[in-house]
Amino acid sequence: MCKYIFVTGGVCSSLGKGIASASIGTLLKASGLKVFTQKLDPYLNVDPGTMSPFQHGEVFVTDDGGETDLDLGHYERFIDTSLSKLSSVTTGKVYSEVLDKERKGGFLGRTIQIIPHITNAIQDKITEAAEKSGCDIMMVEIGGTVGDIEGLPYLEAIRQLNHKLGRENTFFVHLTLLPYLEASKELKTKPTQASVRELRSIGIQPDLILARADRIIKKEHLKKIALFCDVEEKYVIPAQTASSIYEVPLNLNKYNIAQLIADRMNLGKLKPNLKVWEAVVRKIKSKKGSLKIALVGKYTGLDDAYLSVIESLKIACFHEGRDLELLWVSSEKLEEKDKAAWKVLKSANGILVPGGFGVRGTEGKILAAKYARENKVPYLGLCLGMQIMTIEFARNFLKNDKITSEEFDEKNIVGEENHIIHFMPGQHKERDKGGTLRLGSYPCRLQEGTKSKKLYNQTTIHERHRHRYEFNNEFRESLEKGGLVFSGINPESKLVEIVEIKNHPFMIGCQFHPEFKSRPSNPHPLFLGFIKASKK
Question: How far apart are alpha carbons 76 and 376 in whole angstroms?
Answer without folding.
Answer: 34
